[in-house]
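Continuing the series of single-chain predictions for the mutant panel. This is the parent chain; the variants come on the following pages.
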Amino acid sequence: MHHWLLLSIVVAVLVGMLLPLQALLNARVGALTEGALFASFLSFAVGTLALALVLLVTRTPLPSMRTLTALPVWLWCGGLIGAVFVFCGTLLVPRLGAAGMICLVVAGQLVGSLLFDHYGVLAQPRPVDAMRLLGALLVGVGALLVLRPWQAG
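Parent structure:
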């Protein structure tokens, strides 16, 4: 396996391990302050400041206002989707637990990814086949085993 691929896999797994911690931290901030909406705002504000600092330290050139205003409006939805994710994670972790919430998010990401790949949304189409469907089904079964909704209570 190429070392960049291996490093990419390790980084992706490590970042993935941080997502439930982010949701737990945000949920605790929400519980100790004014709720999930404020905690989500605080999380985005801290993240924005951190990224601004990295931009300054790395001296990354910023696009011109002309370039930014020429972008299609729908491209700005990435930030909106991120805000919805952080808010929903902050709201749902106390109800579902970190593992349950992350399992459901991963299941949703997989279904969405299969659809986006299949229809070539913003990339070359990658048709869904039996193996990819089996993988998605296994993720769904895994989410059910983690959540155990039949033991609600």
